[in-house]
Design goal:
Number of strands: 10
Order of helices and strands: EHEHEHEHEEHHEHEHEHHE
Strand order of the largest sheet: 3-2-1-4-5-10-9-6-7-8
Structural class: alpha/beta
Strand content: 15-25%
Largest sheet: 10 strands, mixed
Radius of gyration: 20 Å
Number of helices: 10
Helix content: 40-55%
Shape: globular
Length: 273
């Protein structure tokens, strides 16, 4: 199991070098092709009487400016990526979230930043991380804010026996194989035999892929808080979880592990759905 191609999303207005260097370093270590992508668009103007022509001209000028900016971003991508991995470039005039999720079909792994956490900012200029995880059909690595490399030393798997979590563990095997320490942590109101069996099965699955993992089982009803506390105390630089075990609307309204992790920008977050 390996990644043959890594797609790095570059926000048109954000810092370019850190995210590209992080993705390039990762692609080189995994011997994967690096695909650079930048997607942005201009909002449709509000048409007022007798102002349609002027509004249309302004909108077209904004799009022309974006296409000009693509050239600058591409040059910065080439410079930051260096020659450590084989690369290719793509830019698209489209909604960033839609453009990124469509381009994900070309890669095994999507790498993106989310400097504002779950709140992605301008939806015409940057992709929404939660929507990308939900729609891409590929695992997504959300890089820590400002990070220019992905050091996988201590990895934590936030385990809950759901389809999404199983998918995430399987998808993350190439990254987990690089880690020096892997811990499976589960938080439940009661840690019964079936939970212990589930964690043991995950550890056995990883062991068959050459990954030795420890485990930590925490009894608590405060899943998000206790998981966050464990991650903080463990010094993890990579957290692997499934996404949206409950409806996304419920998580966005009331919180939840997925949103909490997207809001934590101090470590790398690997998610599958």
């Amino acid at each position: 199991m390996s990644y043959k191609s890594v797609l790095v999303n570059i926000d048109i207005d954000g810092p370019i070098a850190p995210i590209v260097k992080a993705a390039s370093d990762l692609a080189a270590r995994l011997q994967a092709r690096l695909i650079g992508l930048c997607v942005a668009d201009a909002p449709m103007p509000i048409i007022i009487p007798d102002g349609a022509a002027l509004a249309g001209e302004a909108w077209q000028q904004m799009r022309n400016d974006i296409e000009s900016r693509f050239k600058d971003v591409r040059a910065s991508f080439a410079k930051s990526a260096g020659s450590s991995a084989e690369t290719e470039w793509r830019d698209v005039l489209d909604n960033p979230t839609r453009g990124l999720t469509e381009a994900a079909r070309a890669a095994d792994l999507v790498v993106m930043g989310a400097a504002e956490g779950a709140d992605s900012g301008d939806l015409y200029r940057s992709a929404d991380p939660g929507s990308v995880v939900l729609q891409a059909g590929r695992p997504v690595l959300v890089v820590a804010k400002g990070a220019d490399h992905v050091p996988v030393k201590k990895a934590v798997i936030g385990w809950k026996d759901t389809r999404e979590a199983r998918r995430a563990v399987a998808d993350a095997v190439p990254l987990l194989a690089c880690a020096e320490q892997v811990t499976i942590v589960t938080v439940a109101e009661e840690v019964g035999p079936w939970i212990r069996e589930g964690v043991a099965d995950v550890a056995a699955f990883l062991s068959r892929h050459g990954i030795e993992a420890g485990s930590e089982m925490i009894e608590s009803s405060a899943e998000s808080r206790k998981l966050a506390e464990f991650i903080s105390s463990s010094g993890a630089d990579l957290v692997v979880t499934g996404a949206y075990g409950h409806s996304r609307l419920r998580q966005w309204a009331f919180g939840g592990v997925t949103r909490s992790l997207l809001d934590e920008t101090g470590f790398h977050r690997f998610m599958s759905c």
